[in-house]
Each structure stands twice: as C-alpha cells, then as structure tokens.
Amino acid sequence: MPMRNINFVFIFCFLLQSSLSINSAFGQEDHHPPDDSGEIGQPGAFSEVDTIFVRNHEFEPDSLTISVGDSVVFYWESGDHTTSSHDQPPGTGPWHQHINAQQTSWLMQLTTPGEYHYHSMNYPDIMTGVIVVEDDEEVTSVNTSQNNQKKYIESVYPNPASDVAQFRISKEGHGGTLRVTNIIGEEMESVVVNDSEDTKVNVSAYPEGIYIYTLEIDNQSKVSGKFIVNR
Predict the structure, then answer these.
(1) pLDDT means per 10 residues in the chain (231 residues)?
(2) Alpha-carbon gap, residue 200 to 222, rounded angstroms
(3) Residues 106, 152: Cα–Cα separation, whole Å
(4) pLDDT at 135
(5) Which of 107, 42, 48, 44 is nearest to 73 (CA)?
(6) Which one, of 189, 184, 187, 193, lies nearest residue 216 by Cα?
(7) What is the edge-to-edge ordering of all strands in the sheet holding 153-157?
(8) In the chain, what's the furthest Cα-to-Cα distance?
(9) What does pTM read for this prediction?
(10) Cβ 87 vs Cβ 115: under 8 Å
(11) How do beta strands 198-202 and 187-192 pair?
C-alpha cells in the first residue's frame, strides 16, 4: 500500500478514536433522564435530601423510604458503578448515571409515589436497591414542620451550590448562629446572623458533598437541614 494511503488510514483511525473518547468523557451516551416526567430536578428549599452511599458491591442504605417531593443524592465512596433504574411507577422515566471518581454525586427529586428499583450495571445481581416514595397523608404535621422551618429560615439557595450558598433568615433568626458541618460532623463554618436579609456562606473551597446547617439561638438548635455542594 502506498505510504500516502497508510498515513491517511492512520489519521482517520486516530480521529475516530479521539471522537469516541470525547463522547465517553462527556457522558453523551450514558445519562438517560426521564422523558418529561419531572422526576429529575433540583430539591426545593424545604424538601428533605436523603443520601445513598455508593461503594464496592453495595448501596447504603439499599432500601430507603421518603416522602413525595423529597430528594435523593447518590454519593460515591469507592469503586466504579452506575445507578440504573429497572422498575419504577407508571408514567415516570428511567435513569442511568455513572457514579465514580469522576462523577462523585448525583441528585434527583422524586415527585410520584411508588417503588423505584435500581441496580449497578457492573454488579446487577448483587448491587441493587429500592426507593419507596410515600404520599404523606399527615398534611397537618408536614405543614407544621415546614412552617417552623420557614419561621427561621425562609429559603436556602441555590441548592446544590457551587460557590456561595445563601440563607434567607427571618427576623426571628437574627442574632443567632448558623453552623455548617460536613456529614461526619466536622465544622466547616460558623456565622453570626446579622440583620441583613441574606446570610452568605462561601463554599467555593468546600469539597463536593452533603453539608448540614443548623441555626442556633441562645445556644439552642432551632432548625437544621441539608444542602449540597456540587460543581
């Protein structure tokens, strides 16, 4: 074969391989969100955020019960896995997302009651889980809890945050202390709440993950919740 043709074939194969590598790196064929089901989204300011840890050969917990509108974050600890649904309520779409050292967390909000069964594509027979979404019938109890939350902290945004998390704290919370800890209890921030409308916490140096905030007034914890740092 003439040298010019050999060079052409070599260049063509190189470009084809590069294209496939780029598609794989950006996950263009890996992530299949629901089709207009509204299942995948950002958590509301007062939706609960529950964590499922992803590690070698297991989801922890592998069975989780939440309320309609709550959010779930899959959080990587070790191994190379996916979270891939295989059975979910009618009218909701499937999901398929890699969870590994490059994609360490993934968040979704579930708004339809029912059971969502999922697995890891790498260990489909032994690494499985289920999320049960219940329609909370105790509306009065939920409203009371949310009203107590809103009495002190009206909103947390954006959630997930990448650079700055803003806490809109009502007058009842002014003068208190906002504490932020990571999931193992290490304190990341302690801010005295002044009279301004928003209290800002710079999270640009925080590692990606889940953080817990607590508002203390007169050394008593009044309200707490979770937010996520993701980039």
Answers:
(1) 44 37 30 36 57 90 90 88 95 92 86 95 94 70 49 83 91 89 87 85 92 86 82 81
(2) 19
(3) 29
(4) 84
(5) 107
(6) 193
(7) 153-157, 164-169, 198-202
(8) 85
(9) 0.53
(10) yes
(11) unpaired
User: Contact 110/131 with Cβ under 8 angstroms?
Assistant: yes
Which pLDDT score, from 0 to 100, does residue 26 have? 27
Angle CA 96–98–99, to nearest 5: 130
CA count, 13 A, side-chain hemisphere, 147:
6
**115 vs 87: CA distance, rounded Å:** 8
Place of tokens 């996950």: 27
- Classify strands 71-76 and 49-55 as parallel, antiparallel or unpaired: parallel
3-state SS string over the chain? CCHHHHHHHHHHHHHHHHHHHHHHHCCCCCCCCCCCCCCCCCCCCCCCEEEEEEECCEEECCEEEEECCCEEEEEECCCCEEEEEEECCCCCCCCEEEECCCCCEEEEECCCCEEEEEECCCCCCCCEEEEEEECCCCHHHHHHHHHHHHHHEEEEECCCECCEEEEEECHHHCCCEEEEEECCCCEEEEEECCCCCEEEEECCCCCCEEEEEEEEECCEEEEEEEEEECC
Cβ atoms of 151 and 183 closer than 8 Å: no
Q: How far apart are the first and last CA of the chain?
A: 50
- At residue 27, the pLDDT reads 31
Place of tokens 């989780």: 64
Q: What are phi and psi of 7, to 5 degrees?
A: -60, -40
